[in-house]
Each structure stands twice: as structure tokens, then as C-alpha cells.
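Below: protein 1.
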Amino acid sequence: MSDQEDRRRGYLVYDGDQLALELREGAGILVSISAPPPMPGSAPVTHPFASATFRMAANEGELGALLRAAPDLGAFLDQVEARGYRVERSES
């Protein structure tokens, strides 16, 4: 892992006490637990300013829509908190 990757900020988004989303700053892949993996040879779903793993199918649609609509990571996190999710900084 490069020094730049080590410095990327990570966040955990909770719905109540349940982990809903793991997020890391920087362009990357979006991983869904509710959708099947991409077919062999097809490209994964990517995002320009975040890598994310959705952990709860119940709110994946809402969080995914907020992520796609946000102009940057800060705006996404603000919207998530405004919707009642709890955001914590990740140590890893």
C-alpha cells in the first residue's frame, strides 16, 4: 500500500447501532452485499471520490443515492448525518 493510500480517511456509517456503510476517501469500488458480484469480465461499480462497502441492504439504496448525488465526500457525510445516520472516523 502506498503512503497516499495510508493517508486516505476512512469512515463508518451507522444506522442506530448497526454498521450500514464502510467508506474510504478516494476513487474506488462500491461493493454491495445485496447485489450479486459483477459477472466475470465486467467492470465493478466505481465512484470518483469514495470506495465503499454497503453492509445493510435495507438502506443501501438511500445511501447509494446520496453518494451518487454528492459533489464531494464532505457533502455526502453532511447529508448522511442530516438523515440521522451516525458517522465515525475509522482507524484503519
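Below: protein 2.
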Amino acid sequence: MPQTTSEKQRTNITITAANLAAAREFGLNVSAISDAAVAEAVRAAKAKAWAHENAEAITERRAWIETNGTPLADLQVLKID
């Protein structure tokens, strides 16, 4: 069963003692920061995987546009040169 964003799972992480002490000194929530960092790393990994999986289609699309121009270009209101 997939987890929803409200479900939490306990885990252990290892960080330097200096970083943990500094985080505590400033009242930072290490769990929330770790969760946000992992979420961003997952987002970046998904984007990279998608780009890799679709690289051929992206290349073909760019080549088509280079040859044929952008679809509906004649209807474009804002012209950028």
C-alpha cells in the first residue's frame, strides 16, 4: 500500500556531530529537513530518469521543429527574437 504524505516511518540517519549540534542550537527540525532533502533528491532523480527515458523522443521533436518550425507559430501573439 503506498504511503500518503501524512504517514511517517521511523528511520535512522547519520550526520556529523557538528551539524547536529548546530541544528539543535538553532532549533531546526532535523527530521523535517531530512525529509525535504530526500523529497528533492527523489524529484531530481525522477526528472533525470524521465529525461533519459525520453531522450530519443525529445531529440526527434527538436529535429522536427528545426525542420518544420513550431506548430501554430503564425498564431503566436508574443514574438520573441
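Residues 33 and 39 are 10 Å apart (CA to CA).
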